[in-house]
Design goal:
The complex is a heterodimer of chains A (339) and B (422). Chain A contains 13 helices and nine strands. Chain A is α/β, with parallel strands linked by helices. Chain B is globular and about 65 Å long. The chains are: A alpha/beta (339), B alpha/beta (422).
């Protein structure tokens, strides 16, 4: 079976799919961040376009609703000069009974070059990259509760731009770790980039079993969790968690795990506060903190476009190399398991 | 019909027999055991280095067919069973239509008889359509040959209904088969542990199994029903069965071959071939299952064969159908356990044949002169590759496809007739 690194990289070690930071080495993650840094500058120019993906077709496949992630991917692709098609699959093919496999094969037949995929099932992007359309670059825009690598990497970009090195940092990730597709990727990326003090904070009902095996510590209280940390990453809490008995009430959650000015004082004075958005004011975070000087929440949004431009351009370049290398050796049948 | 098997290692756990000798089958029965030099037959097998045992009895399998022929037919799956050394099968009631009526059982039995590879001892549905609300016609179903009643993977949530099921079964001395997994806690896709956490898949905690075992044990104790637990998957589950047996309860249990051989880490990379229910658990659980076979807590090894068409496994992991087609790889998997010294062939044969026959047939099987000739001959040193041309099951969900395997059934004999030959 293809391992995660081999699946995401070309034979020459270039990125061709971006599914998760797991399995990618530090050099590759730093290259992604360096490339993203260069695109931050593009966003500040009067003409915000570069021609890197001119003539390429990028299809945004959103099997789940997401206004924010979808629009930043769309903007990133347009700034790279790609032709962009955004499909809300939920209301089209699959609701008519077409399988994921058939939907993708149809899109592949239209000579698409890249799929940006968001899907409710963990492993969906991995499945598409390994078994359905290996010759189309796949960017994972979130799969189930498994991964959301561009969000995690834009968080890394935010941390690096404001804190520099990862090694000396203490990072707290607070809230619904269990259902978070971002938290797992943040842990993988932080570990690979050299951060050794990663703390997860939340009640047992929101803490996945065996998470300590990923090299993190778990904390039941904010007091121990954010004490003297450099970075506080707050996770979004879906309101339906109360209905499914994960939590008693939003009020109790905020009292125990909400980030207030008073609590933030326990972190280092120059600690930064991050949140993937959209934020629930008064549930995860107090407005004074969300809008305060330590908040990086809006910076994250801007970096998100640059980061997505970086992975899209890198994966497209890798995929093109791979296609050329295999020009005389066509890929296997669609749906066939690759060894 | 006369068959002579020469020079095989005969293993019969019922008599603690392990001996290299010859065996002669005539007119469906074992005619002679011993040196047959000078005696000849139209069919003679040189079985040097091979193992000859009483044939295998499978306590849990899915034959598909009826309305699921895209997954496998009774002809294809019973032939695959014969190639794994089985002569008797206990198919699960989750057929389509459900095995809750005499007419369905009769149809399955007639198709099995026409195929001619195995005999079946059906396990019928405990409740109508496995819905957990209305009792099936248990007494009538037992009259058409059903050896027990199960609600398959559909745990009955309502304790009142479950009590009635047990009380009714107790009235007629019927056996209840249990797939112990709490419905709500068992709604995930794989074992709850570090691997599930990393992969972002919903976990099924061990307590999903132990809670269900404890609950069913209480009903069995309360009603006096004789119970059999299919596919125990966890160390804690083995411990509960062991404790109940120590207390003198009339229960038996089996483990699926996949759970004896694989763990949850096999799922890494979203390998849907390892998506099974109950889920593959951790190495400590696997070791406890092996220990359960050794000390007799787990009486039997079943195939838990569940063939699927390729589309059922070709989707994101959570959307794939659980189950593994195991018949084509069962004997190589057992050989693997023998090679790692987890099991001996004697123990494996006890679990695949002797004990499972006692549970399903209520009689022992043995290599005894005068006994009906139901035999399995295994070549433990045979090297081969499992692929689409060598496999007999229609299921494409074989975890070991395209791998080089060791050991294979050379011959399966049912009532003196060869039902499979390599």
């Amino acid at each position: 079976m293809t391992n995660l690194a081999n699946l995401q990289l070309t034979e020459r070690g270039e990125l061709r799919h971006f599914l998760t930071p797991e399995g990618l080495d530090r050099l590759m993650l730093e290259r992604i961040l360096d490339t993203a840094d260069s695109f931050v500058v593009v966003g500040n120019q009067e003409v915000k376009k570069v021609p890197l993906l001119r003539g390429r077709t990028v299809v945004n496949l959103f099997f789940e609703n997401s206004t924010r992630t979808r629009s930043t991917f769309e903007l990133a692709a347009k700034r790279l000069s790609a032709d962009v098609l955004t499909l809300d699959i939920k209301t089209s093919a699959t609701s008519k009974g077409e399988s994921l496999l058939d939907t993708l094969q149809n899109l592949r037949a239209m000579h698409s070059d890249m799929f940006v995929v968001r899907h409710g099932d963990s492993g969906a992007a991995h499945f598409i990259a390994s078994q359905v359309t290996p010759d189309v670059a796949i960017i994972n825009a979130g799969d189930g509760r498994h991964a959301h690598p561009t969000q995690a990497m834009l968080d890394m970009l935010t941390i690096r731009r404001h804190k520099g090195q990862f090694e000396p940092l203490s990072v707290a990730i607070v809230g619904d770790i269990l259902h978070s597709r971002v938290a797992r990727d943040q842990i993988h990326a932080l570990k690979t980039l050299g951060c050794s003090d990663i703390r997860l904070v939340g009640p047992n009902t929101l803490m996945p079993q065996g998470i300590e095996s990923m090299g993190v510590t778990t904390h039941k209280t904010m007091d121990s969790g954010i004490d003297s940390v450099d970075v506080v990453i707050m996770l979004r809490l879906q309101t339906e968690r109360m209905e499914c008995a994960f939590l008693p009430s939003a009020g109790e959650y905020f009292r125990l795990y909400g980030l207030t000015t008073k609590r933030l004082a326990q972190a280092k004075p120059d600690a930064i506060v991050m949140h993937p958005g959209p934020i629930n004011r008064g549930i995860e975070i107090e407005s004074a903190v969300a809008d305060g000087p330590q908040s990086m929440i809006l910076n994250q949004v801007g970096y998100g476009i640059a980061l997505r431009m970086a992975v899209m351009s890198m994966a497209m370049s890798g995929q093109m190399q791979q296609r050329q290398a295999h020009a005389n050796n066509p890929p296997g049948l669609i749906g066939e398991q690759r060894s | 019909m006369s068959i002579i098997i020469r020079g095989a290692r005969l293993i019969d756990p019922s008599k603690q027999l392990e001996q290299v000798t010859d065996l002669h089958i005539k007119d469906g029965f074992i005619e002679t055991i011993g040196d047959l030099t000078g005696i000849h037959s139209a069919t003679e097998i040189n079985a040097n280095g091979m193992i000859l045992s009483p044939s295998f009895v499978d306590l849990h399998t899915c034959l598909r067919d009826l309305n699921q022929i895209q997954k496998g037919t009774i002809a294809s799956e019973t032939q695959a069973a014969a190639s794994a050394g089985f002569t008797h099968l206990c198919p699960s009631p989750d057929t389509q239509p459900c095995s809750d009526a005499g007419s369905v059982i009769s149809m399955i039995k007639s198709k099995v008889a026409i195929a001619g590879f195995c005999d079946i001892l059906p396990v019928a549905a405990l409740t109508k359509d496995l819905k957990g609300t209305q009792l099936s016609n248990m007494e009538s179903l037992s009259r058409v040959g059903c050896i027990g009643f199960s609600n398959a993977n559909y745990d009955i949530s309502d304790n009142t209904v479950l009590l009635r099921c047990y009380e009714y079964a107790a009235t007629f001395g019927l056996k209840v088969f249990v797939q112990a997994q709490d419905r709500q806690l068992g709604s995930g896709q794989m074992h709850a542990g570090p691997t599930a956490t990393r992969m972002g898949l919903d976990g099924i905690p061990v307590i999903a199994e132990t809670l269900s075992i404890s609950r069913h044990l209480q009903f069995m104790q309360h009603t006096g029903v004789s119970g059999h637990f299919n596919q125990i998957s966890s160390a804690a589950g083995v411990a509960l069965i062991r404790q109940a047996k120590t207390q003198g309860m009339n229960i038996t249990a089996d483990v699926g071959i996949a759970h004896l051989c694989f763990t949850d880490t096999a799922v890494k990379g979203y390998r849907s071939q390892y998506h099974v229910q109950p889920p593959l658990r951790e190495e400590s659980d696997r070791k406890a299952l092996v220990a359960g076979i050794h000390d007799g807590t787990l009486d039997a090894i079943c195939s838990a064969h569940q063939p699927h068409e390729s589309a059922a496994k070709c989707a994101p992991f959570a959307a794939t159908a659980p189950g593994m087609a195991t018949y084509d790889m069962l004997v190589p998997l057992i050989q693997g356990l023998v090679d790692t010294e987890d099991l001996t062939w004697t123990l494996a044969i006890q679990a695949l044949s002797f004990n499972s026959a006692v549970i399903a047939l209520r009689k022992t099987t043995s290599l005894t002169v005068g006994e009906e000739a139901n035999l399995t001959l295994i070549d433990p040193g045979h090297h081969w590759t499992l692929n689409s041309s060598s496999q007999l099951s229609h299921g494409t969900n074989q975890a070991l496809t395209n791998q080089n395997l060791k050991a294979r059934v050379r011959l399966t004999i049912k009532s003196g007739r060869i039902t499979y030959t390599m």
